[in-house]
Write a structure and sequence with these properties.
With 648 residues, this protein is an alpha+beta fold. The chain contains 17 helices and 23 strands. Strand 7 and strand 8 form a beta hairpin.
Length: 648
Amino acid sequence: MKGTKLESVALEKINIQDRFWNRYIDLVREVLIPYQWDILNDRLEDAETSHCIENLKIAAGESKGKFQGAVFQDTDLAKWLEAAAYTLAVHRDPNLERLVDETIDLIGKAQCEDGYFNTYFTIMAPELRWTNLKEGHELYTAGHMTEAAVAYYEATGKTKFLEIMEKFVDLICDTFGPEEGKCHGYPGHQEIELALVRLYRATGKVKYLELAKYFIDARGVGENYFLKEAKRPLYKQIFPEFAGYDTKYSQSHLPVREQKTAEGHAVRAVYMYCAMADLAALYEDEELLEACKTLWEDMTKKRMYITGGIGSSGLLERFTTDYDLPNNCNYSETCASIGLALFGKRMAQITKDASYMDVVERALYNTVLAGIAQDGRSFFYVNPLEVWPDNCMPRTSKEHVMPVRQKWFGVACCPPNIARTLASLGQYIYFTEPGRIYVNLYISNETQVDDKIRISVKSDLTNTGHIELKMENKGTEPANLALRIPDYVSDWTLLRNGEAVTERRVEKDYLILEGMEPGETQLVIDFAVPARFVRANPKVREDSGKVAIVKGPLVYCLEETDNGGNLPAIFVSTAQELQEQYEEELLGGVTTIQLRGRRMDESAWDEEKLYAETSPVFEEVQLKAVPYHAWDNRKTGEMLVWMKEWFS
């Protein structure tokens, strides 16, 4: 672990101009920020009520009424503010900046004299501060607000929001810690640990870093704090489902360094792992880093969907056991995949190992993008791999599965999380260290890496795999590049200034190119990214005898609108060659996959019988598969990723 952690390039230096990604990134500025602002202000009559801004006005004394929403309702605003900050870093917009400043003023008015800020407890139960860390989400909410404040400071240089949150975090530092007289608890929902590290980096104040370390080190040590807390007179249960609390749910069952498997609520888990990685790097804590590696291996090799989704249980949104990956009732919360990407990014920066970015890319291109409609006005919270709309019924085991994206949610953490992720996508593309630039994601962009190096990329990764990279080096010393070789690429070619590069020095899945002389260097990369069939480990019971289609980073699926209903009745042979076709007018322009299959003929079955010895009759069918992230952007209908394999 010794050595400099890789750094991301500042967002304001990156201009993404990518045919695939800009259809989503541009939504943030053009649709998501104004649309979600209307939602937060309860201006859309046909969407679930947020009451977020109204809660803020009540807490600030500018309105009267009762708090409405979840205890963590403030975080919807926090993530909206963070998305706005990232947007302003790239596109300065005086109107948006003024709106954010006015909102920050309102937050300042709602802040208590001692620095405390949380509209739920300020309005509903000020006497119950810090009495229910398990469910109250005070530290979680403080974390998201702090992250937004740091992002806005970095984007604009303005300090008011940062000062507001510093005052609150100073109160938290005075309240929590190992010292006698302080609360020895830790967050029920991890998040503030990430924020404390970011606040430390922005301010240089070590006490913020030390508090993050305390929250991580204290977790799961000795008598469980949440079980002890629940016995106190002031404790009041908020969520009925937390009765009979399982400490694995909040990853507080063991000290973090002793945890070997990904357990509990998936979002809580990956947010905690992010903080563990941050602290491992800053404190050069090898034991903590090894714990991160162990948890990553278990999560991504035994508990992750092919789409980068995690958290297989709809009950409590949690991990279950190794290889338990059901397709039609899984949860795979969008926020969990966002957290997975954040964790993988940190691990790649620490270890300089590109394999972490393989998973990051998978999550971003599939589950995260599936969470938003192509018009930016509806969202998936849950991301199944198989959907039959008729059985997505309330008060059943599949009530959490939605066959269509929703305009909003009563608990709406995912939509603003998608907005902040898309707005900050540039942070994943490059890493740097003295003397070397790492290229992680092949997204078309123009980037001023530093005062000497400028890079431009034209990428067709999801279609042909053809990538052109130009580096302008205005310095006097040669530059060095490290190009990620994705795990799905087994064959590739590289031209450097028109000449084939045959000597390949690959370190941890990065191709190292040294001695890029001052001036201009042209690289042409051709990754072979044909559509192909893949199978799951036989231990994944749900997928035994089934195949899926992938092309580059994209997972594909069948939709009813192209292939008719009852998709599980379809069988496909992997002996065939998959046919690719780029369709400019379909779903904003996508490469579709054509293949042959056999469908069980329902008409051959006696409708009067539910069970019989009837032999199946098959009909030949032509099938079309589309990228998973784009499903449900046309007609409502069935969807299927894993298809039954035909053995002739």
